[in-house]
Design goal:
The chain has 126 residues and is mainly alpha-helical. The chain is 84% helix and 0% strand. Helix 4 packs across helix 5 (82-99) and helix 6 packs across helix 7 (118-125).
Length: 126
Amino acid sequence: MRMASRVAHILETTLHLVGSHGLEAVTHRRVAKAAGVSLGAISHHFSSRDALLRATLAHAADREVRRLNRLALDLQTRLFDTTAWIEAMSAALARDLQRERTYRLAQYELLLASARDPDLRALARA
């Protein structure tokens, strides 16, 4: 597995753990087991739990911004009425909440953590 894809896999696994079990579930050992990688691989890429959580928050934010941009661009080509655009965007977000419940819960958990941690807050704003 390439390093970039391994890191992405670790971050996605961390998101899943956060969404399924909360922030308390995130340890290097548990992420390694869930991701099917060695504990050393987690430690190599993320020196601490905080570093792993920061990277996971940044990954989730990047993923969400790309998704919303794609959705907005798709709607832009089809809808020119502001009310119709807002309704279509709301419906798409509601579908995402149903389809990706664990991922959405992980996002909210990470945003709550960022409200308490000034270092994470800057990432959440970005």
